[in-house]
Amino acid sequence: MCHHIISLSDQEQLVEKLEIFKFQGRDKNGHRVLRIVGKFLSARFLSVDALKNYLEENIFPRLKKKPFSVLYLHTQVQKNENFPGISTLRSIYDVIPIDARDNLQAIYFVHPTLQAKLFLATFGRLHFGSRLYGKLRYIKRIDYLWDHIRRNEVKIPEFVCDHDEDLEGHQILDCGLESDHPRVCGAPFMDSPVTMYSTRCI
């Protein structure tokens, strides 16, 4: 997945610094939410082993006891740039404990592309099973996310908010109505391995 330019321990520290995996808030059913930032699951920086080690040490132990949901931010994930690949995703999926899989209630997939939907409808079903696929909930806009996730409990990266604003002009095609959700702007998100998160979209 990567060329191991940096050591495994440094890669794991990078995962922590980027907050690729972070527990934040709860959904409307009261389940804990694990937020995943897809943009930083990059082959340029991180190996499969680094991701698996981080998940096994810091995330999986917290998923075994109670139901939880996943908030996956697909914004700016490009197949040729930062998509980790099906073999990597399958490798990570295989090490998820069975009880954690059973406790997964829903996957809120934000900013899905047509390519991603087609991929998941075909290869996703094949490699991850129809049970997991059935838990997918596609979310086209951040405003719609709050129908499922409790507001003000999840921080959305600035670049996700920016992309959401780019879609503003297409909103009438999405639902025919203007949104009445307020938008709160916060600190900028820097597009680099050292990054900050914004509360602009909450």
TrEMBL record:
Q: Which organism is it from?
A: Salix suchowensis
Its organism's taxonomic lineage begins at: Eukaryota, Viridiplantae, Streptophyta, Embryophyta, Tracheophyta
Q: What is this protein called?
A: CRAL-TRIO domain-containing protein
> Which InterPro entries did the record assign?
CRAL-TRIO_dom, CRAL-TRIO_dom_sf
Domain of life, source organism: Eukaryota
Q: Which Pfam families match?
A: CRAL_TRIO_2
Instruction: List each copy of the CRAL-TRIO domain by range.
Output: 14-165
